[in-house]
Write a structure and sequence with these properties.
Elements: H1 5-18, H2 23-41, H3 47-50, H4 52-60, H5 67-80, H6 83-95, H7 101-116, H8 120-137, H9 142-153, H10 163-182, H11 193-221, H12 237-262, H13 268-285, H14 291-324, H15 327-336, H16 342-356, H17 362-368, H18 370-379, H19 384-398, H20 406-414, H21 421-444, H22 447-457
Helix pairs in contact: 1-2, 2-14, 4-14, 5-13, 5-14, 6-7, 6-8, 6-12, 7-8, 7-9, 7-11, 8-9, 8-20, 9-21, 10-11, 10-17, 10-18, 10-19, 11-19, 11-21, 11-22, 12-13, 14-17, 15-18, 16-19, 19-21
Length: 458
């Protein structure tokens, strides 16, 4: 029975999460329950629990994690100050006369929003409220319009600087050091959030290019599904000036944040400070700033940050109890005994993460699943940057896949009632195929994720 305790712990956590209980309390409460049973039955050494205060102090003093509230503040401020709305409207007017132009605009603006907010729900809802009515009014196919918005909204999972990549990078960094120490490497190499940011650039841009190519092909072969806009104002100096006012400032902010990280001028945390301050200045410059809006942004930032750090603490307790019951050894023996070695282990992990993405958010999967499987995979020789990007794109695909994809629920909540749910499901299918293709290419050619970090930091 003792050998089954880690498996039972993992299954019970997933079941309780599926019932809708808060993630942090589920992780901590279930782990404490199992720890109590383990201590009473003599199957768990309570010394593992003594490490919890040090773990909590390490979480709260982690310099990398300070970037989380700063990037959240940046994204929420850009959303609440309607900078994204202005950007989408202007890009739609620019590309509108081209067949498929509105679809191109949604992808490009969605990419910029992903780089600025990194929050899937916010991006999908914002794009759905702003662009979906316009696309439907201009005669776009409802399936193409909804699929385009859902797929573009999930880019926040992979386009840096992404909150998901920050959290995933911190977890993978701990897993990588843990794996090397177990292998007898006492001067372990490190993996940073910047490594994941750089590694995500090429796959992320490939996804954007593939989306644009698909919309272009639809516009070419099915022009009635992606028509040109007929009511654009004249392309005069006033229009160009308005376009530049809406495009250049947020673009400059994103380049400053990401560029400072890639060039090594600033750490991700310092760059997040630049982003938060820059978003505040943009809101003031666009005359969209007031005390009520600042309070709203700070409340949202506090809520998200508190949730993330509570989950961190719950996940630390879960990890200690899981290890105390011998869960790591169980996973290691299961993976190493698989026929096919690393290939089979990666395939199973990707499949499990994909299925869990139907019912759990990326934060939950990052804290529950990744610390269990990552050290074993890294000990088997898997590159940590490649593993992180594979997990990110895999989750992005899962969030888009019917019938449980989170992005579908977000868009369903703001889409007009006359658009059937099956239409949304039908619309995302080509984009799911695109993401699976990129994931397959990344699996066959890991250099797509590892080459650029090696060139910049190798």
């Amino acid at each position: 029975m003792a050998e089954l305790m880690p498996l039972l712990l993992f299954v019970l956590v997933c079941l309780v999460l599926m019932c809708g209980f808060p993630v942090a309390f589920t992780l901590a409460g279930t782990s404490l329950l199992f720890a109590g049973v383990g201590v009473l039955t003599g199957t768990l050494d309570d010394a593992f629990l003594h490490a919890l205060p040090n773990r909590m102090f390490g979480i709260l003093s982690n310099q990398i994690l300070i970037a989380v509230p700063l990037f959240v503040f940046m994204g929420v401020m850009l959303e609440k100050s309607r900078i994204a709305e202005r950007l989408l409207r202007n890009m739609g007017l620019l590309f509108g006369p081209v067949r498929g132009g509105l679809g191109f605009s949604v992808v490009i603006v969605g990419m910029l929003m992903a780089a600025s907010t990194g929050i899937i729900g916010a991006t999908v809802v914002t794009m759905g409220l702003i662009s979906l009515p316009t696309m439907l009014r201009q005669g776009y196919s409802p399936a193409l319009a909804t699929g385009n918005i859902c797929a573009t909204g999930t880019l926040g999972q992979i386009i840096p600087p992404s909150t998901a990549l920050i959290i995933l990078g911190d977890v993978l960094s701990s897993s990588y050091q843990q794996a090397q120490l177990k292998m007898g490497i006492f001067s372990p190499e490190t993996i940073s959030v910047a490594d994941l940011f750089v590694g995500a650039l090429i796959p992320g841009l490939m996804l954007v290019a593939a989306y644009l190519l698909y919309i272009g092909l639809v516009a070419l072969f099915r022009p009635q599904a992606a028509p040109a806009v007929s009511d654009r104002p004249p392309l005069d100096s006033a229009f160009v000036l308005e376009l530049l006012k809406g495009l250049l400032p947020p673009l400059a902010l994103i380049i400053a944040v990401l560029g400072s990280i890639l060039t090594g001028i600033a750490t991700p945390t310092e760059a997040a400070g630049i982003g938060a301050g820059g978003a505040l200045l943009l809101a003031i410059a666009y005359r969209e700033f007031d005390i009520a809006r600042l309070k709203e942004v700070m409340d949202a930032t506090l809520q998200v940050t508190s949730m993330v750090f509570l989950i961190f603490i719950g996940a630390a307790l879960f990890s200690l109890v899981f290890r105390g019951f011998g869960g790591e050894e169980l996973v290691h023996s299961a993976f190493t005994s698989l026929p096919g070695g690393v290939f089979s282990a990666m395939l199973i992990v990707m499949l499990v993460i994909f299925l869990l993405g139907f019912i759990l958010d990326f934060i939950e999967i990052t804290f529950v699943v990744v610390p269990i499987v990552a050290p074993v995979l890294l000990m088997m020789g898997v590159d940590p940057v490649w593993l992180g990007i594979m997990i990110a794109i895999n989750l992005q695909t899962s969030f888009l896949t019917p019938p449980f994809g989170f992005a579908l629920f977000y868009l369903r909540g703001v889409a007009p009632k006359e658009i059937a749910t099956r239409t949304i499901y039908h619309g995302v299918m080509p984009f799911i195929a695109i993401q699976l293709l990129i994931l397959l290419l990344l699996a066959i050619f890991p250099q797509l994720a590892t080459w650029l970090p090696d060139q910049l930091y190798g």
